[in-house]
Amino acid sequence: MATTDIRNNVEKALEEIRPFLVSDGGNIKLLSIEDNTVKVQLEGACSGCSVNQMTLKNGVEATIKKYAPEIKEVINVA
């Protein structure tokens, strides 16, 4: 899959997740995609949330992999 297609699919996944994060006072920003690793930045209430790693892996990463199965990992860059 082309790099632009992967980026578009990751953006679609983030758009699906974003309303849930915003409803809790947070947000997420895509920083980069390198070697099938997505780097994001959790913002607002999400950045200091005690369960943000669970949200990142079980929510964000799972949804991104649904849209872009070639993605291996999603990491938060604080």
Structure description:
The protein is an alpha+beta fold and 78 residues long. The protein has two helices and three strands, in the order αββαβ. The chain has helices spanning 3-23, 52-67; strands at residues 26-34, 37-44, 73-76. It is globular and about 35 Å long. The N and C termini lie far apart (29 Å). 18% of the residues are buried.
Adjacency order of strands in the biggest sheet: 1-2-3
Query: What spatial form do the alpha-carbon principal axes imply?
Result: globular
Tell me about the largest β-sheet.
3 strands, mixed
Could you state the oligomeric state of the chains shown? single chain
Secondary-structure blueprint:
Layout: H1 3-23, E1 26-34, E2 37-44, H2 52-67, E3 73-76
Parallel strand pairs: 2-3
Antiparallel strand pairs: 1-2
Helix pairs in contact: 1-2
Briefly say what this structure is.
The protein has two helices and three strands; from the N terminus they run H-E-E-H-E. By secondary structure, the protein is of the alpha+beta class. Helix 1 packs antiparallel against helix 2 (52-67).
What attributes characterize this protein structure?
27% strand, single chain, 78 residues, globular, alpha+beta
